[in-house]
Amino acid sequence: MEEERYEILKDLGSGNFGVARLAKHITTGELVAIKYIERGYKINENVQREIINHQSLNHPNIIKFKEVFVTPTHLAIVLEYAAGGELFDRIYSAGRLSEDEARYFFQQLISGVSYCHSMQICHRDLKLENILLDGNPVPRLKICDFGFSKNALLHSQPKSTVGTPAYVAPEVLSQKEYDGKIADVWSCGVTLYVMLVGSYPFEEPDDPRNFKKNIAKIMNVEYSIPGYVRISSDCSQLLSRIFVANPTKRITVLEIKQHPWFQKNIPKELVESDRKCCKEIEKEKISKQHEEIMRIVREAMNPCPSSTLDVADVDEIEEVE
Ligand SMILES: Nc1ncnc2c1ncn2[C@@H]1O[C@H](COP(=O)(O)OP(=O)(O)OP(=O)(O)O)[C@@H](O)[C@H]1O
């Protein structure tokens, strides 16, 4: 049994689909995060997409996909563990970042996103909650959660309104087909704004839960930088190139990478990893893994006889075995 190779250490939290747990690989001692999703109807197209798209990615700023297996009750997705938690929590507890810190994270975010796009995958749910940090004192950024991702080679052009309201681009709200890569740029802009300002750009400050008003702000690209936040003119110029309603006029990821604000203090390894990762596409290996993953996912779509057990029972099953 695959699960016997891991010792569960603690819960990391729960999401819409299940729980994530910290675990240790028994022979290597490596720490991993395992996401458990109950077998049966919860193993839907999004889960399938998440796994297929995520497994083909290999970049220092993307959480590594390790393996997937089924337990009697759950589908288990094994991922690289990011000990630093969510960037959202860091900003929530420590407040907004300085411009240099925000640039440090933004450079890594764009590096990861640019790599995804080069693999024909758009993320479609980029936000601070889907950005994790590793355990280094100077943390490295790791993009996670590919549940809404689309692969241009496998899937149709995106049309559905997915993502998180505060982060979605105007064209995603329009119910027409849109370019997922360009919509990702908008979400990166919202992420940058939140890092710098500590609040959302398109949110009514006195009425933050008013969905209608917030949507109108997005459609009209109504945002401002509060006076108490000092940012350079290069930085505000970059934001103004990202927050452009017309996706064909919006700055692209490639252009962001050439922008003077982005170029400042750019770490050498970031430029190098960009070059290396794009060379490492082994199509044959990926398609073999793809088939094996589809087999496991199909198996997990069948609820097991004991499917009435809930997630808390995962430990008990392991003990019984
Ligand atoms: N690789 C990881 N390393 C460290 N923590 C992780 C990892 N993956 C997920 N987590 C944490 O585990 C918790 C649950 O994650 P999960 O992805 O299941 O749900 P979510 O992202 O909170 O919600 P949803 O996927 O429903 O939007 C979150 O707090 C998340 O930060």
From TrEMBL:
It is an enzyme of class 2 (transferase). GO terms for molecular function: ATP binding; protein serine/threonine kinase activity. Keywords: ATP-binding, Kinase, Nucleotide-binding, Serine/threonine-protein kinase, Transferase. Residues 6-262 form the Protein kinase domain. ATP binds at K35. InterPro entries: Kinase-like_dom_sf, Prot_kinase_dom, Protein_kinase_ATP_BS, Ser/Thr_kinase_AS. Its EC number is 2.7.11.1. The keyword ATP-binding applies. Belongs to the protein kinase superfamily. This is non-specific serine/threonine protein kinase. It comes from Vicia faba (Broad bean).
